[in-house]
Amino acid sequence: MADFWGTGAVADGPGLKAVDMFEAVHRGDIRVIWIMGTNPAVSLPDSARVREALARCPTVIVSDCVAHTDTTDLADILLPAAGWGEKDGTVTNSERRISRQRRFLPLPAEVKPDWWIMSAVAKKLGFGEAFGYKRPADIFREHAALSAHENNGERLFNLAGLANLSDAGYEALTPVQWPVLKGAGAETEGSTRLFSDGRFVTDNQRARFVAIETRLAAQQTSDDYPLVVNTGRIRDQWHTMTRTANTPRLLTHRSEPYVDMHPDDMVTHQLMEGHLARLRRGDGCYVGRVCKSLEQRRGEVFIPIHWNRQFASSGVATLLTESVTDPVSGQPEAKHGRADITPFRARWHARLLVRRNRPRRWQADYWCQVPLHYSDSWWLAGRQPIDWSASMTEWLGGKAHLVMADASQGRFRAARLVNGQLESVLMVDSDPALIPDASWLDGCFAEAELCDASRRALLAARDVDVEDPGAMICSCFQVGENQIAGAIANGAKSVEALGNNLKCGTNCGSCIPELRDLLAASVRESA
């Protein structure tokens, strides 16, 4: 690389891997850091220490296409970067296939792609000649030429056949698998298979097997932390949900941070399904809704990695994982933590819906924001009793027009209307299971003026003439658990039959495991 670029200023060893890098920031060894397209204040283990490191760092630069994330909130300089549909370039997938990506959205004002931003900064630092790119094709040609430089077969990645690609050829590039040793444009020839001649890229051209020894996870349980914490993805969210959480349909299945537990562990730790629990490791705390799961192993819990401080008060899973890394790859032991668990003893639970972009004037010990199609909403809980009649204007944003209170049951309902339109609704109960689903109420926010029937039904939170679909199972076609149970009772005894009746499971297929579980549960109940 030094020879190709004609410089001696090339690193002579590996740089710091992600976890080690933030330790260096924390120590003060790194005083300027530029973070692009990632959210380490949520995604890295021991995320509280990562946040502390960024808070200490004199200059934090963040490039992102989302203005508010846990990481951008710690930035000194925030650069508006192009998002996926605004970028032009190439992508390479896991089968080595290079494909042209053509943007289908115009760049918003002041937004630039990453290559342009880096080039502009380099020019300001006096390296304009080395970063004189005018278009993505310039960078691709250099990338291809570098892959071929002094490459006599000792490196499999080789794009020699694309190093002289014209701008027109780049625009017309069709998907091709590397290595690409000859041709350009329509004559480009890729390599479908590797190692078909039985030769590997080693000194003796023979494959090497590396023997490894397995070892237990470093984060083992103890008297203080008796539970293994397994963290992972869920079907409808992506990474730290900075974008997917803004799509209401993707929150219909799982709307809050949760804790999957075996029923025996729920008994041991005095937890109730549907109520909140608090996982703790040191100063790290995670609060989620308890979900009973017979498939969860005893002594272990599962929590999702996606929630962040923008959408939940205590939903960051990485607060429970330590900065233990593999000595070679630097990969953190991110899927294996440990914690203690206790009930989150709330005096009240609530659901609040308000018209979009209204200021927030309330306080709660637990909250989780759930964007809906026509309104903003939150799940809420608190440890201290509240005089709802006296404080409801703070929650609703003004005077309530419909109120229902039953102090003996710990139940309170209130709604505010402005010019005939629904402005806000508050539903409070001592038992979270008794708080109605918000889907029907959300639709009321879309009405230009509520009819008398809707006004009368506001505090019940549902149209009594419409069947309650139940908890959402199929996000693609908005099919609820009650609808599926009804179809099973009427003779649908397979996933295929449910799909024929309700369409659930016929699109992305991610709900099929739950459909199978519901079918199996029906068989057990009828046995």
Number of helices: 14
Average pLDDT taken over every residue = 92
Helix content: 10-25%
- Strand residues, percent: 15-25%
- Shape field: globular
From the N-terminal CA to the C-terminal CA, the straight-line distance is 69 Å
Q: State the low-pLDDT regions, or none.
A: none
**Which structural class fits the helix and strand makeup?**
alpha+beta
Notes on the structure:
The strands form 5 sheets. This protein has a 6-stranded mixed sheet with strand order 8-10-9-12-7-11. A 6-stranded antiparallel sheet has the order 14-15-13-18-17-16. A 3-stranded parallel sheet has the order 1-2-3, with no helix packed on it. It is 22% helix and 21% strand. The chain is α+β, with helices and mostly antiparallel strands. The protein is built from 14 helices and 20 strands.
Keywords:
527 residues, alpha+beta, six-stranded antiparallel sheet, 21% strand
Compact description:
With 527 residues, the protein is α+β, with helices and mostly antiparallel strands. It contains 14 helices and 20 strands. α12 packs across α14 (512-526).
